[in-house]
């Protein structure tokens, strides 16, 4: 079943928020192509292209922008380096309205017609991790990501770059209180799974039904208050000397197990 995209053509993307009043810069060919595919002249304000760069991929991007009546600005490489803080921009960057967050109800609408599969991130701080998780979430059909409003990374240009366009397809809800949100999800029939050293081997996890997977902070794991709310916990067995995994790697392993146990659909 095709999923609706609550972020696409969402008028809320054009409205200023308390968190951001300035444009976000999205750079790199894949990320820019995806932004142009999902965006419109209302959300993308300008395309910056490196001067004297005339490769086929860049020409395709410029043609798409012109068809959407987006202003194209030829700039020297040094300006792109400055605007992207030395990022790997590959000669292209767009200035666009900040990414909008959706509501919990929007996430359920996104999962209309099937049991929802959500991922909850407990105070994740690294934008690289959030971008990678979004990319994997899109690959396995996760219906939405839930993040806290405070003390955690949000949707930024770095996240967009790392997600290689997945940020346009996976809706993200940002909530004030994760514990209360989890209680609300339980009231709506979801089973909440977290990670713990003494949890069930993730390879036996059956993620069928209405489920949410909680991924903890990079250094501290799931906070004690949230840990008490888990219906069950999972662990990833390891035989090496380093008994921990990067948050995005662990999330990817668990999301793919969820995807597999749900029938790969």
TrEMBL record:
Q: Which family does it belong to?
A: Belongs to the class IV-like SAM-binding methyltransferase superfamily. RNA methyltransferase TrmH family.
Annotated RNA 2-O ribose methyltransferase substrate binding domain residues: 25-102
Q: Which organism is it from?
A: Lacticaseibacillus hegangensis
Q: Does the record's keyword annotation contain Transferase?
A: yes
Q: Which domain of life is it from?
A: Bacteria
Query: Which protein is depicted?
Result: 23S rRNA (Guanosine(2251)-2'-O)-methyltransferase RlmB
**What's the gene?**
rlmB
UniProt cross-references to CDD domains, sorted A to Z:
SpoU-like_RlmB
Task: Indicate, by first and last residue, each region the UniProt record lists as having compositional bias (Basic and acidic residues).
Answer: 7-22
**Which key words are in the record?**
Methyltransferase, Transferase
Q: Which InterPro entries does the record associate with it?
A: Alpha/beta_knot_MTases, Ribosomal_eL30-like_sf, rRNA_MeTrfase_TrmH, SpoU_MeTrfase, SpoU_subst-bd, tRNA_m1G_MTases_N
Pfam families in the cross-refs? SpoU_methylase (PF00588), SpoU_sub_bind (PF08032)
Which residues lie within the region annotated Disordered?
1-22
């Amino acid at each position: 079943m095709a999923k609706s995209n609550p972020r696409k053509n969402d008028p809320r993307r054009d409205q200023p928020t308390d968190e951001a009043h300035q444009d976000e810069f999205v750079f790199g060919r894949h990320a820019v192509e995806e932004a142009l595919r999902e965006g419109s002249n209302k959300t993308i304000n300008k395309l910056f292209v490196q001067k004297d760069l005339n490769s086929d991929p860049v020409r395709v991007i410029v043609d798409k922008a012109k068809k959407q009546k987006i202003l194209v600005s030829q700039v020297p490489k040094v300006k792109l380096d400055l605007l992207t803080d030395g990022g790997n921009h590959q000669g292209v960057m767009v200035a666009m309205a900040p990414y909008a967050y959706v509501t919990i109800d929007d996430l359920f609408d996104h999962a209309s017609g099937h049991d929802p599969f959500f991922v909850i991130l407990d105070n994740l701080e690294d934008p690289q991790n959030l971008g990678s998780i979004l990319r994997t979430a899109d690959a396995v059909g996760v219906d939405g990501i839930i993040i806290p409003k405070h003390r955690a990374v949000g949707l930024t240009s770095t996240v967009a770059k790392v997600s290689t366009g997945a940020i346009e397809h996976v809706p993200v809800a940002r909530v004030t209180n994760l514990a209360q949100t989890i209680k609300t999800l339980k009231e709506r029939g979801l089973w909440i799974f977290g990670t713990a050293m003494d949890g069930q081997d993730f390879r036996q996890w059956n993620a069928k039904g209405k489920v949410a997977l909680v991924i903890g902070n990079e250094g501290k794991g799931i906070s004690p208050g949230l840990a008490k709310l888990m219906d069950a916990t999972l662990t990833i067995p390891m035989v090496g000397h380093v008994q921990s995994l990067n948050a995005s790697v662990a999330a990817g392993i668990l999301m793919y197990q969820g995807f597999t146990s749900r029938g790969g659909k």
